[in-house]
Design goal:
The protein is α/β, with parallel strands linked by helices. It contains 15 helices and 19 strands. It has two domains: about 270 residues, Aldehyde Dehydrogenase, Chain A, domain 1 (3-Layer(aba) Sandwich); about 180 residues, Aldehyde Dehydrogenase, Chain A, domain 2 (3-Layer(aba) Sandwich), CATH 3.40.309. α3 crosses α4. The chain is globular, with a radius of gyration of 24 Å. The model has no long low-confidence stretch (mean pLDDT about 95).
């Protein structure tokens, strides 16, 4: 079931029935399903990229790379499933001499059940129908109902059709994956009692509304939302003195990437007042307007840009308001740390689009005070000189308290898909501590179950004494490698 005619109730019922079947299958079957989905994307890449570009205007080069990333993360989760440590299997043999005595206990993670995934507008592949949320949920053993994004409907339908065919060919139960459409279906999907968790990527207002719906259900469920993020950058006096041009070049490239529509876009940069970073940015930006994703994002960008430029103490260094046809050129804004301390809620809020705010600080104490009012964020970046090691250590500690990923040098746009990656952060960047990128994203869709004094033949295969699956397990407190 993949069309816009599928109702929420039909989709969730199919997902619930399929989940019972999926839970009886060896977890390694899911690896084959994930690889089949990746193969389907790769086999139709030219067609899919053309569809995506037609609906999002993101460009063939960007979309080709994003599609490759999407199929790669599906294959990565196939490897995770086969390796088996994601189950966190643990075995404690009886120990009557412990205080209190330990019976035979065996614990592992199991799927929560059917989950809902809300596709994003700005990543039509990587955070959409077969994006990271779907990949990690299928790897966990959940069945998935995707709520398509209205910004790229034809692409979503085509990807969903390919997914349905690939899963059917590999013998996955009907209902393992379903897609529904329509903005009004979102609330119904979150409220449906068969849905056991939700993944969301979008705005703070939309995410917070649905989070409240999820937590106010008669039986609340986890709601994993990635929302707004300002991704602050701190430029120290030493970095400004020795590498201002390099910093300015990198910042322009990062905040204008994808017309500023990355969740990791560096939106607010703190720099020494005497360095003139805002002027350096203004000299470097290309004012050729480019298309935003859709009219709704264009309207939101105009509204937020007008809000911030109307504030006292905010200067437009270069750029202008986006056009009514939702084309936008970069905008460089400047204010001071004093103003940030006076109006943190207004100035330290995301502008989704190609705008960058430079905050001038006149002393390190002023910088410290301004950083103390930062909201939760996905990333934070520090540019410091080698001789500023003590200051860098202090600032990294401060930034690590508000961000899920801290960069020393470099730029936050571009999120590697790997075992060590974390993509999340304190509210309002997300509603949880879990990551939506990387292998541990699978943990969102699982819960622990412990079996006590259960006959070996009745235990799930990962917990049986002989370890028939050969997976890594913690036995009597000792982490054992595969096949032991």
């Amino acid at each position: 079931m993949t069309s816009d005619h599928v109702s929420v109730s039909d989709a969730t019922q199919a997902a619930a029935v399929a989940h019972r079947a999926v839970s009886q299958r060896p977890h390694t079957d899911r690896a084959a399903w994930l690889e089949a989905l990746a193969d389907a994307l790769d086999a139709h890449s030219s067609e899919l990229v053309a569809l995506a570009d037609d609906e999002t205007h993101l460009g063939e080069a960007r979309l080709t790379g994003e599609l490759a990333r999407t199929s790669a993360q599906l294959r990565m989760f196939a490897d995770v499933v086969r390796e088996g440590s994601f189950l966190e299997a643990a075995v404690d043999h009886p120990d009557p001499n412990a205080t209190p005595p330990i019976p035979d206990l065996r614990r592992m993670l199991v799927s929560l059940g059917p989950v809902a995934v809300f596709a994003a507008s700005n990543f039509p592949f990587a955070f959409s129908v077969l994006g990271g949320d779907t990949a990690s949920a299928l790897a966990a053993g959940s069945t998935v109902v995707v709520k398509a994004h209205e910004g790229h409907p034809e692409l979503s339908r085509r990807v969903a059709s390919l997914a349905h065919t690939a899963l059917q060919t590999e013998g996955a139960p009907d209902g393992t994956f379903t897609m529904v459409e329509g903005r009004e279906t979102g609330v119904d999907l979150v409220r449906d009692p068969k849905i056991r968790a939700v993944g969301f990527t979008g705005s703070v207002s939309g995410g917070r509304f649905l989070f409240d719906v999820a937590t106010q259900r008669p039986e609340p469920i986890p709601f994993y939302a990635e929302m707004g993020s300002i991704n602050p950058v701190v430029v120290t006096p030493g970095a400004a003195a020795h590498a201002l041009g390099e910093v300015a070049d990198g910042l322009v490239g990062s905040f204008t990437l994808g017309v500023g529509q990355f969740c990791t876009k560096p939106g607010v940069t703190f720099a020494p007042a005497e360095a003139g970073l805002a002027a350096a940015l203004g000299e470097r930006v290309d004012l050729q307007p480019k298309a935003l994703l859709n009219d709704r994002i264009g309207a939101g960008y105009r509204h937020r840009l007008n809000e911030i430029t109307d504030l006292d103490g905010v200067e437009v260094v270069r750029g202008s308001e986006p056009s009514e046809d939702s084309h936008a050129a970069p905008v460089v804004l400047r204010t001071t740390a004093v103003r940030v301390l006076e109006q943190p809620e207004d100035l330290l809020d995301e502008v989704f689009g190609p705008a960058a705010l430079v905050v001038d600080y006149s002393s390190l104490d002023e910088l410290r005070q301004a950083l103390a009012v930062l909201p939760g964020t996905l990333t934070a970046t520090l540019h410091a000189a080698p001789e500023e090691e003590a200051l860098a250590a202090e600032l990294l500690d401060v930034l690590g308290r508000v961000a899920g990923r801290v960069l020393y040098g470099g730029w936050p746009t571009g999120v590697a898909v790997s075992h060590a990656q974390h993509h999340g952060g304190p509210y309002p960047s997300t509603t949880s501590v879990h990551t939506s990128v990387g292998t541990t994203a699978i943990r969102r869709w699982m819960r622990p179950v412990a079996y006590q004094t259960t006959p070996d033949a009745l235990l799930p295969l990962p917990l049986q004494e002989a370890n028939p699956l050969g997976i890594p397990r913690r036995v009597d407190g000792v982490l054992r490698p595969p096949s032991s």
